[in-house]
Structure formats: C-alpha cells, structure tokens
Amino acid sequence: MNQGHLTDVDWTLIPAPTDDGGAAHLPGQMLPSIALPATDGSNVDLSALHGRTVVFGYPRTGQPGKIAPVDGWDMIPGARGCTPQTCSFRDLFAELKAAGAAQVFGLSTQGTDYQSEMATRLHLPFPVLSDEKLALSRALNLPTMRVAGLTLLKRMAMIIDDGHITHIFYPVFPPDRNAGDVLAWLRANPR
Questions:
Q1: What ranges do the domains of the chain cover?
Q2: Three-state SS across the chain?
Q3: CB 3.0–4.6 Å: which of 65, 92, 127, 185 could bond 40 by disulfide?
Q4: What is the pLDDT of residue 110?
Q5: Can you name the residues that pair with 164 across neighbouring β-strands?
Q6: What is the pLDDT of residue 65?
Q7: C-alpha torsion angle, residues 69, 74, 76, 79 (rounded to 10)
C-alpha cells in the first residue's frame, strides 16, 4: 500500500507506532554542546540557545515523484508522515512563537542539501538541522530505527528550555497533529 501524495494521508491505513520507551530518559537531560548544520547556512548548538526551543524530529522527508527508500515504507510504524508533520509546524509557526517558542527547528539524519531542497519547496519559516553524523542522536541516545541501511530518527518533538529538555512528545501519531499538540502544551505551560 502506497499513498501517493505527501500531505494527504489516510492515517487509518497507516500503522501507529507504539511507545517503546525510547524517549523516556530524555526529560530532564541537558543537551550536549554539538553544532549541527542548518538549512539557513548556520551551525546551531541547541545547548547554547536561550529561551524555549521546539525541536521536532522525523525519519526523512520525501520528494514528490521519488520512490520511498524501501517497499512498504508506509507500513513501517512511524515512518510515513514527515512532510505532513513539517507542514503542520510551518502552518502553526506564528502561533508557536506567540505561545513562547523562541525558536523552532526540524531535525533529521538527512544531509543539509536534501533538507534544503525540502525547506525551500515547503517554504519553511524555520531551519532544519542535520544530524547526518548522528552526533546528537548518539549523545542523547535518541530513539532511532534502521531502514534500508540508514539510521533514521523516530518521530518526536522536544521542548528545550535553556539547553535542558523539559518535555518530550513520543511517540507521535498522527504526525500532522504534532504541532497542534506542541502548541497546546506551550499554552498550558508558559515559562
């Protein structure tokens, strides 16, 4: 089963990920000082940012007309939905900022060139960070999955206050509701 359009997805046909406990250790963690390349050309050290930061992680975004990395991509729990998740953060960006997010970032293990194409195509108002070398993933023991020889992040969102992980959304399903859930949490938990 392959639902062709990247943003119009019938989530009832997609298997939901289960909570495997892969992110249970993250709340309370301090972020390590690791500079990640961003689609805006900068390098971002999440541990050095002041204020409240929202980082949403995802396995990998697709490109229109390109095939998935493996047959059955849609049936891997948590794989499908990176573009809808990213678009939901784009669409709610102003509200997230108004609710206290000093900065918002996407995060994947894809390279910056690939991410930059997606950021331009989707008109993202925030940078996407590349953990292609898995430095942050390994340092924090972020939940990952192996698909087609690639190490991919499992879908999550982190609320980070001054370099300290305050809250985790994991697992995330359906992905297009993640930004709304983060927004509701920010409004209910002002700094």
A1: 43-188
A2: CCCCCCCCCCHHHCCCCCCCCCCCCCCCCECCCCEEEECCCCEEEHHHCCCEEEEEECCCCCCCCCCCCCCCHHHCCCCCCHHHHHHHHHHCHHHHHHCCEEEEEEEECCCHHHHHHHHHHCCCCCCEEECCCCHHHHHHCCCEEEECCEEEECCEEEEEECCEEEEEECCCCCHHHHHHHHHHHHHHCCC
A3: 127
A4: 94
A5: 30, 161
A6: 67
A7: 70
- What class is the 43-188 domain? alpha beta
pLDDT of residue 134: 98
Residue at token pair 């495997």: 20
Alpha-carbon distance 158 to 54, whole Å? 6
Residue found by looking up tokens 């396995």 in the block? 59
CA–CA gap between residue 118 and residue 7 (Å, rounded): 13
Dist CA 74 CA 66 (whole Å): 14
Contact yes or no for 28/133 (Cβ under 8 A): no
Confidence label for 72 from pLDDT (cuts 50, 70 and 90): confident
